[in-house]
């Protein structure tokens, strides 16, 4: 791709879209970029899943501290994580950008390369989107369309008293990576690993599909705002309470409970099914019928990230 930011003023929106189209070849079954709507075929026995997320400069990322390739990757990754949370298979995405005039030459190229690479990894077609100018900030909006077996989507509403609360990986590494970024940058290999964990999360698409196939898994969501915030969402939707560990091998550092952007899966499972689960996981709590959230071994009330 040779289309740079300064070319938008000379070549216009359609020249930019033409260059993107070259990077994302269509699949035979999907009609994507180039028309007013994308065309995705429906298949019998499947449900369609849709999700959308927005990333706003200075809210979700600091442009001067963010590599454009990694931001392109993350822009789609956070949506694929939503798809994973339902046990779905991503099929296509829509990308919309509001672009400020101060983007450096080559920035868009690197952003789209990151978006392309994660699209290819998870076999997700870029089917269209929109572009606009912005006065002073970059806005990124992504929508993802996917599918799952009819009636097979896991939701937040199925947790039952007695269920174990589990996560698919270590929590707090992304928040630790952000601290390193804001503190001046990585100083060693471990710092680099944590920074990468923040910038380039791996959505647990395969794990979500496997968990959705287990009858004893009753509810699931992805961890974007921190476990202390997100367990409350399962509690609210399922009308249950929870007892959660305040200390656990799954927790990395002080931000494990209050930090966000882990993009692991948080799920509840019947104890009889837990030992035979087909994915690596940690047990971090238990669902109760109390309607209250209790933190074991702590008198703090952890809250997680809040947007408002």
List the helices and strands and how they pair.
Elements: H1 7-23, E1 46-56, H2 68-85, E2 89-99, H3 107-121, E3 125-133, E4 139-149, E5 164-167, H4 173-182, H5 189-199, H6 205-212, E6 217-222, H7 227-238, E7 241-245, E8 265-269, H8 271-274, E9 282-288, E10 293-296
Parallel strand pairs: 2-3, 7-10
Antiparallel strand pairs: 1-4, 2-4, 5-8, 5-9, 6-8, 7-9
Q: If you had to describe this structure to a student in words, what would you say it looks like?
A:
The protein has 308 residues and is of the alpha+beta class. The chain contains eight helices and ten strands. The chain has helices at residues 7-23, 68-85, 107-121, 173-182, 189-199, 205-212, 227-238, 271-274; strands spanning 46-56, 89-99, 125-133, 139-149, 164-167, 217-222, 241-245, 265-269, 282-288, 293-296. The strands form two sheets. The chain has a six-stranded mixed β-sheet, sandwiched between helices. It has a four-stranded mixed β-sheet with strand order 1-4-2-3, with helices on one face. Helix 2 packs parallel to helix 3 (107-121), helix 2 (68-85) runs parallel beside helix 6 (205-212) and helix 4 packs across helix 5 (189-199). The longest helix has 18 residues, at 68-85. The chain is globular and about 60 Å long.
């Amino acid at each position: 791709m040779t289309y740079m930011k300064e070319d938008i003023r000379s070549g216009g929106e359609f020249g930019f879209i033409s260059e993107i189209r070259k990077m994302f070849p269509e699949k035979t079954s999907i009609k994507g970029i180039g028309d007013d709507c994308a065309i995705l075929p429906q298949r019998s026995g499947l449900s369609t899943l849709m999700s959308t997320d927005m990333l706003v400069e200075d809210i979700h990322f600091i442009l001067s501290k963010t590599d454009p390739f990694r931001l392109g990757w993350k822009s789609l990754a956070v949506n694929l994580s939503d798809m994973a949370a339902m046990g779905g298979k991503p099929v296509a995405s829509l990308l919309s950008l509001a672009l400020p005039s101060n983007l450096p030459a080559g920035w868009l190229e690197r952003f789209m390369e990151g978006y392309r690479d994660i699209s290819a990894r998870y076999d997700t077609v870029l089917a269209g989107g929109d572009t606009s100018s912005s006065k002073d900030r970059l806005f990124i909006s992504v929508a993802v369309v996917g599918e799952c077996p009819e009636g097979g989507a896991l939701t937040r509403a199925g947790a039952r008293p007695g269920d174990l609360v589990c996560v698919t990986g270590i929590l707090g590494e992304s928040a630790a990576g952000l601290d390193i970024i804001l503190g001046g940058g990585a100083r060693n290999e471990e710092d680099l690993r944590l920074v990468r964990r923040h910038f380039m999360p791996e959505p647990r698409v395969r794990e979500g599909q496997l968990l959705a196939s287990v009858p004893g898994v009753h509810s699931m969501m992805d961890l974007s705002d921190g476990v202390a915030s997100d367990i409350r969402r399962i509690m609210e939707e399922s009308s249950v309470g929870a007892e959660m560990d305040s200390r656990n091998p799954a927790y990395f550092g002080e931000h494990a409970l209050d930090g966000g952007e882990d993009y692991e899966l948080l799920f509840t499972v019947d104890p009889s099914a837990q030992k035979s689960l087909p994915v690596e996981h940690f047990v971090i709590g238990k669902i109760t019928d109390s309607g209250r959230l209790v933190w074991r071994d702590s008198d703090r009330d952890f809250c997680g990230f809040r947007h408002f």
